[in-house]
Structures are given as structure tokens and as C-alpha cells.
Amino acid sequence: MRKKLLLAAVAFTLLTGASQVASPFVSSAQASATIMSIGTTGTNVTTLQNNLKTLSYFNYSTATGYYGTVTRDAVLAFQSGYGLPADGLAGPVTNDSIIHALLKQKLIADASSYIGVPYAWGGSSTSGFDCSGFVYFMFTKFGVPQVRTTAATLFTQGSTVSRSMLRPGDLVFFRIGTTGAVDHVGFYMGNGSFISAISSKGIYVQQLDNTYWSPRYAGAKRVY
């Protein structure tokens, strides 16, 4: 009986496994299983180098598949840029952070395609967004687990990021009402800009340091 059950389980796996869609969480788990350091070789190193190149940290012309000083320095630069322990080792935390950074790079590039979509209070679809609805929509679209909530609740999630350490995909928060509560959120895009849903323009890109937003800045969080 146990043999029949085992054979059935194997058959089910063979039939269904190939049809499963890859997700960033599968990639993250695979990355976490590997620790790379000076002297490591193979396809995992090649993948690491290509990922770091996409993120503008690996400056060698092509991936070599060898973890030498150039790769170590690229890992160190990434770790320093993302506030991680800078040991030059591509271990679980670093590997996961790279996967997350790649996904958020794609998310930010795609977010720009919604510029001009109108503002709608409570909206979380392409017919209209409010600020937290846009965050929910983008995270959900890219497979990041999130519930529909408010800017104030989002501000309680993730890890705090200083303004000098902001990276694309981090959430930036503001206090624009008279109560002093956090009531606005957007995605940091890089180069001092962020994208969010505002009542006057819908999805729109603005600068953190302009005269309106700078004094209302409340902080930033990295939730993925």
C-alpha cells in the first residue's frame, strides 16, 4: 500500500511540477541555499555576477563564473549600499536581498507606465488609485505578499531606512494632513524622486527635496 502511495505521489509530481510558475520566492529560496566566497566557481557565481551587473554593482565586462576579488568587491558594495553586514560573502541574507532588489527594480520600471492614471479615494486598480492602493497594486502585481491597508499601517511594517540609504522600491512616507499622522506613501525611484498617487494629478513623479514634500517627509521603510 505504501509503495502504491509513493508511486502515485511521484507521478503527481512529474505531471504537475513542470507547469508550476516560477516566483521570486522560489528564486529567493534557491539563492539562500548557496554561500559563495573567494574561489567559488560555477553557474551560481555566473548568476550572481549577472544579477549584480543588472543592479550596477558588478562592473566587469562579462560574467566569468569565478568568485574573485572583483565579485567580492561587488558584493561588498551591494551589502554596504543596502545596509547589510559587509563581509564580502554571498550568503543567504545577501542572496535574498539581491533577489528582492532585482524584483523592485522591475517594479519601479513598470510603475512609470501608470503615470497619469487618475486619483480615486480607496482605489487600487487601473481605473484609479489612492496612495496606498497603488502600493498594494504594484506589490501584488509583482508577487510581494501584501494586504490592502493604509499609509499609516504600511509605516509600521518592514525595516526603517535612513534617507541616505534609500534604494529603488523602498517606501517613502509623509505627513500632509493637519493631524500630524502619516497619511501618504509612495515608491522611491532613485535619484531623489518618488512615485505616488496624489489627488491633483493621479500617479505622478516628484522630488523628495522639493518645497512641498521635504518638510512633510516622515521616513522610509523597506518591506521587501
Automatic annotation (TrEMBL):
Sorted alphabetically, the Gene Ontology BP terms of this entry are: proteolysis
Gene3D superfamilies assigned to the protein according to its UniProt record, in alphabetical order? endopeptidase domain like (from Nostoc punctiforme), PGBD-like superfamily/PGBD
Known Pfam families for this protein?
NLPC_P60, PG_binding_1
The residues forming the signal peptide are: 1-22
Residue ranges of domain NlpC/P60 in the record: 101-224
* GO MF term set: cysteine-type peptidase activity
Keywords from the named record: Hydrolase, Protease, Signal, Thiol protease
**Protein family according to the UniProt entry:** Belongs to the peptidase C40 family.
Protein's recorded name: Peptidoglycan endopeptidase
Which species does the entry assign this protein to? Paenibacillus albus
